[in-house]
Structure formats: C-alpha cells, structure tokens
Design a protein that fits this description.
alpha+beta; 4-stranded antiparallel sheet; 4 strands; elongated
C-alpha cells in the first residue's frame, strides 16, 4: 500500500509540474551528453596519441654542401663518411633507440617530389641540395630530448627534429576543445541542479497541505520526502536515457554511417563501441543519483522534517 501511494504521488507531481519537469529532463540530458562526450573525447585523444606516437620518428639531418655555405651549424663543411659512421654507431648504442633508417639525398629528393611535386620550388631543386638523414624510431617517443642533447651541434649534423612536436600542437588543440566542452558541461549541470531544486520546492509547496496532514498523523520524514526525491530521480533518469541515446546516435552517424568519418579519415584510429557502451552505465547512475541527492538536501530545509 505504501509503495503504491509513493508511486501515485510521483505521477501526480510529474503531471503538476510538467513544464519544469520537461526543463529538468532537457537540461540533464544536455549536460550529461556533454559529460559523456568529454569522456569519449579524452578516450579518442589518448587512442590517437597511442596510435601516432608509435609511428613518429626523430630525424637527424646531416649537413650537405649547400648547408656549409649558409647554415652556421654546418660551418665546418658537409658531413664526411667517417662522421656518418660515427653518428650511426652512436645511435645504435643508445638504449632509447629502437630502429635507425638511413635516407640518402636521392631518396629524400624522391620523397619530396612525391609529396610536393606540384610546388614551384620542386622544379628548381636537385638531389644534391637535399639532406641525408637518419630516421630514428624511439622505444619511448617521450625520450626525444635524449637524442637532441646527444647530436645537436655535433660536427656534420645540421639539425635534430622531432615529429612528435607537430602532433603535440594538434593534441593540445583537441585537449583545449575538450576542456571547453567540460566547462559548458559544468555550467549545464549547475543549471540542471537549480532547476531540480526549484521543481522540487514548487512541487512541495503545491502539496504543503497533504504533507502537513501526513506530519500530523505521524508519517516519517523519509515517507514524506520519498515521492519528491523519486520525482526528481525519475526526471533525471529520463534525461540520462536521452543523453545515452544522443551518444549512441552520434557515434553511429558521425563515425560509422552518415558522415562516416571512419571511412573518410583512414589515418585516424577512432574509438570503438566498447568505449561508448562502458560510459552509459556511469551516465545513467549520475542521472539518477544527482537529482535524488539535490532533492534530498533541498527538502531537508524546505519541509523541515
């Protein structure tokens, strides 16, 4: 009988404050969709880091005859055969180095023509103007500075470049966008909590006569509060369900179908469905507990039970 009464009161409360209940559902859905989106964005950035950092190389560019005339780092002339042998031997001895690949001037020229063949500059370049280099794959991409310290300024070395620096700029931008989404999410959560508190208070005020009678007949505080708390929890849970739907639909249409980014952007290793599905229980739990706790603390002061 008590359970039936509580359930009937939940229905009455939701119908009486239909507009505010709808506002709560929408605000909870949007805020938790942003919450889930920010979590997935973090997973995506980490996945991309793991994928691309494993492929980046450190390049040790060697001095050529042109560099000897124009670059201060090559003031002692083009790299010699002995210097190349010494550099290669030192690279292979380093514990942080996984593999070393030599790229000749002809190979560098060929790669340049493949990538920038339409450039006006390409027609004026010759193989002897290109730089020989050692392409180094590190066991840990974060150890670039070890290579830079060992070879920067060394005779025959024009420069040491790390491709990871280019990726760091991209990941910095993605992380910045992710933090912006989290800021919007936090704002939406505050709005949702304010709406929940106001909705619960309006509902309690509209039923103050019933709650007064219940106190007079000796009803417990929890028994009086339960319908209001469950109203907020039900509205929040509906919003959480809508947020989960947003994430599933977004993953389906943006990555798999519709925009089909997984087919158009083959260079990006997108997160899988497992990453999405593992976030849904967290979103549903948050959508249930957050409104219930907000309603509980709001009612303690308002009903004074």
């Amino acid at each position: 009988m008590r359970a039936q009464f509580v359930l009937s009161e939940i229905g009455v409360g939701l119908r009486r404050n239909l507009t505010m209940t709808f506002a709560v559902i929408v605000s909870v859905a949007l805020s938790l969709a942003l919450f889930g989106g920010s979590l997935l964005m973090s997973d995506q950035v980490n996945t991309m880091k793991g994928y691309w950092y494993d492929k980046v190389n450190v390049s040790v560019f060697l001095c050529n005859k042109s560099d000897a005339e124009s670059d201060p780092n090559c003031a002692k002339g083009a790299v010699t055969k002995d210097q190349k042998g010494q550099i290669l031997g030192d690279l292979k001895k380093m514990s942080v180095v996984d593999t070393v690949t030599y790229e000749s001037q002809d190979a560098a020229y060929k790669h340049y023509k493949e990538q920038f063949g339409d450039s006006p500059l390409a027609s004026s370049l010759t193989p002897d103007q290109m730089q020989e280099s050692y392409r180094i794959k590190l066991k840990d991409p974060e150890k670039y500075q070890v290579i830079a310290t060992a070879f920067d300024g060394r005779d025959g070395v024009q420069s040491v470049q790390d491709q990871k620096g280019i990726l760091d700029n991209l990941f910095g931008l993605l992380n910045g966008m992710n933090w912006a989404a989290r800021a919007v999410m936090a704002l939406m959560l505050v709005v949702a909590l304010m709406l929940i508190v106001n909705t619960v208070r309006v509902s309690a005020f509209s039923r103050r006569r019933e709650t007064g009678i219940m106190r007079l007949v000796g009803a417990s505080g929890f028994y009086i509060q339960a319908p209001f708390i469950m109203e907020a929890a039900v509205a929040g849970l509906i919003g959480g369900g809508v947020a989960c739907g947003f994430l599933v639909v977004a993953r389906y249409f943006i990555i798999d179908h519709g925009l089909a980014l997984s087919e158009k952007l083959n260079l990006i290793n997108f997160i899988g469905w497992d990453a999405v599905l593992t976030k849904l229980p967290l979103i549903l739990a948050t959508s249930l507990l957050m409104p219930a706790l907000a309603a509980f603390f709001a009612l303690r002061k308002y009903l004074k039970v």
